[in-house]
Amino acid sequence: MPGHHLQFGHWTTLSGRLSLFQTSAGSVSATTEGWALYAERLMDELGYLDDPAARLGYLDSQMMRIIRVIVDIGMHLGLPVPEEAGLGPGLRWTAETGRAFFGAHTTRESAFLDSEIVRYLGVPGQAISYKLGERAWLAGRAAARARNPRFELKAWHMAALSVGTLGLDDLEPELAAL
């Protein structure tokens, strides 16, 4: 799968042309993790997840990421837990309710769930930035494809990875211009 190893390896080969910010020190989740989620979706789009077990694993990971976003937003904003969540009436998102929700909707082990809650308490907005980054990669690709009748996916990927890490405000327009 063309995830981080391709991304970081390509940045290493371009290290003489890109700044330290563009290749490592300024790593922005929207670019790095957005690319990783985009790459997973790309493998599905290209038909590499046709095996039922592989497809189920992909969908399970997607579900986990949705839960991460819900829990991250809910905990940091102290929002009420919707009754449909099945955790009980009148609750607010806390580490405890987030952990219970995560456990009820994934197949992950207990230690993993605990680490996820600690992770998102320590890095607010990280889960959201991953998904917003994925959306920026998808929208940038769609715009580039619409703009260029001779669009080639492989060439676009290499050009997109060649810009290094970008902030979320710049990511989609930069990818669209390629």
Please provide a written account of the structure.
The protein has nine helices and no strands. The protein has 178 residues and is mostly helical. Helix 4 packs antiparallel against helix 5, helix 5 crosses helix 6 and helix 7 packs parallel to helix 9. The chain is globular, with a radius of gyration of 18 Å. 25% of the residues are buried.
In a nutshell, what does this entry contain?
It contains nine helices and no strands.
The number of helical segments is 9
Largest sheet: none
- By secondary-structure content and strand pairing, the structural class works out as mainly alpha
What do the pLDDT scores average to?
A: 92
What string gives the helices and strands in order? HHHHHHHHH
Quick one: how many beta strands? Answer: 0
Q: What is the straight-line distance between the termini?
A: 23 Å
Assess the beta-strand content as a share of residues: under 5%
> Considering DSSP H and I runs of 4 or more, what fraction of the residues is helical?
55-70%
Q: What Rg, in angstroms, do the CA atoms define?
A: 18 Å
What is the domain tally? 1
Based on Cα principal axes, name the global outline: globular
Protein name: DUF885 domain-containing protein
InterPro entries: DUF885
Organism: Amycolatopsis tucumanensis
Topology of this protein?
Blueprint: H1 4-13, H2 20-25, H3 29-45, H4 52-77, H5 95-105, H6 110-122, H7 126-147, H8 153-161, H9 168-176
List keywords for this structure.
178 residues, mainly alpha, DUF885 domain-containing protein
